[in-house]
TrEMBL record:
Domain (Aminotransferase class I/classII large): residue spans on this chain: 37-381
UniProt enzyme class: transferase
SUPFAM superfamilies noted in UniProt: PLP-dependent transferases
UniProt feature coiled coil, ranges: none
UniProt KW keywords: Aminotransferase, Pyridoxal phosphate, Transferase
EC number: 2.6.1.1
Annotated TM spans: none
Pfam families found in the cross-reference section: Aminotran_1_2
Family from the record: Belongs to the class-I pyridoxal-phosphate-dependent aminotransferase family.
tRNA processing as UniProt keyword: no
Protein name: aspartate transaminase
One annotated GO biological process: amino acid metabolic process
Length: 388
């Protein structure tokens, strides 16, 4: 028996990311424009980095609060109050090592081996991967692509619920489709969860990347305090902090001690000097976010116009997030297409197969980059599409 055979089956079955496979293939190509990952091209702004550097210089390198330093939890509460129009207590928030730790802990609290968790797909692959590692069966429910955009049929979610279902994972605005739930859809999902006594794990990290003039609708708009909803979030997207690996989880205050214990036995907390950067991001970063959303909006319109003019692609203009999920006429193998695009026109995109059920036949690109790069990448992609 080999060593791999002795590894727990859930661990050895964890799939390699289809995004990583493409990125590893093309990341060193000269002149390549990388649009495969879910991040922008700007480094973290100085007002955030400088705050972290001051904390480091001041010797904030020791063990710290498991749930996050009080100043950061208070800043997260202020951020939510500004953007969601309600009062929040600092004890509702737990600082995490990125959004992934928040998701992992949410699963640890809501489901275990032999349980099921429903999620909407095409989907960012990490929730299903994390569920599988935990022994939880991820159950996909397909969004429908229509002439009016991607649609969530809540009856499909209802049909996927079994006696083993413990949670529904909802990412809106969505990666990769840009699907953005309206208030009525969120209410229908919440009503369904209440009837079946299910948890909702809400990933609303792109709530401010919404092109309808204000933030996207949120479960926070309709929930009551005792609803079984956990919100996972991250500093990565809004403030150009993907490499920092810092995020947070919002929960009912009665569960804070439980989540602090889970932090203790996993990461033991986030470095205090990094949390100083998080405070600066939240308290001083609203203008930066607004600039990024405006740029992403322009970039979205550029790529949709150029690819749309080929007459050979099918997509829904995304109302939220910063991805375009598009199908190319005649393309049957999106993974092979992604590698071919790297070789022939030096643009990095992610294959739709990386995004679970319903992804084959699609490609995803991240348009959260400089407008000149997005325009150039779009023309290169159009060249590849027209040459097929």
């Amino acid at each position: 028996m080999s060593l791999i055979d002795a590894v727990r089956i859930e661990a050895r079955s964890a799939p390699m990311s289809g995004i990583e496979a493409v990125a590893n293939y093309g990341r060193d190509r000269a002149g390549l424009i990388p649009l495969w990952s879910g991040e922008g091209d700007m480094p973290t702004p100085a007002f955030i980095s400088d705050a972290a550097a001051r904390g480091l210089a001041n010797g904030e390198t020791f063990y710290t609060w498991q749930a996050g330093i009080p100043e950061l939890r208070q800043a997260i509460a202020r951020y939510h109050q500004r953007h969601f129009g309600k009062s929040f207590g600092a004890n509702e928030f737990i600082v995490t090592v990125g959004g992934m730790q928040a998701i992992t802990m949410a699963l640890q609290v809501t489901a275990g081996a032999g349980d099921e968790a429903v999620y909407l797909t095409p989907a960012w692959p990490n929730f299903a991967g994390a569920a599988g590692i935990a022994g939880v069966k991820p159950v996909p429910v397909l969004l429908d692509m229509t002439d009016n955009g991607w649609i969530c049929d809540v009856e499909k979610i209802a049909a996927a619920i079994t006696p083993r279902t413990r949670a529904i994972f909802v990412n809106t605005p969505s990666n990769p489709t840009g699907w953005t739930a309206d208030r009525e859809t969120l209410q229908a999902i919440l009503d369904l969860a209440r009837r079946n006594d299910l948890w909702i794990i809400a990933d609303e990290i792109y709530a401010l990347f919404h092109y309808g003039g204000s933030r996207a609708a949120s479960f926070m708009d309709i929930m009551v305090a005792e609803d079984k909803i956990l919100f996972v979030n991250t500093f990565s997207k809004n403030w150009a902090m993907t490499g920092w690996r810092i995020g947070w989880l919002k929960t009912h205050p009665s569960l804070s001690r439980t989540f602090e214990n889970l932090v203790q036995y996993s990461s033991s907390g986030v470095a205090q000097f990094m949390q100083r950067g998080g405070i600066a991001a939240l308290d001083e970063g609203d203008a930066f976010i607004a600039e990024q959303v405006e740029r992403a909006h322009k970039a979205r319109d550029i790529v949709c116009k150029i690819l749309g003019e080929t007459g050979k692609v099918r997509f829904s203009v995304p109302p939220g997030a910063f991805y375009l999920f598009f199908a190319v006429d005649g393309m049957k193998n999106s993974e092979a297409a992604a590698f071919d695009i790297i070789d022939k026109v030096a643009v990095g995109v992610a294959p739709g197969t990386a995004f679970s059920a319903g992804g084959e036949g699609f490609l995803r690109l991240c348009f959260h980059r400089r407008l000149d790069q997005i325009e150039e990448a779009s023309h290169r992609l159009a060249k590849w599409i027209n040459a097929r």
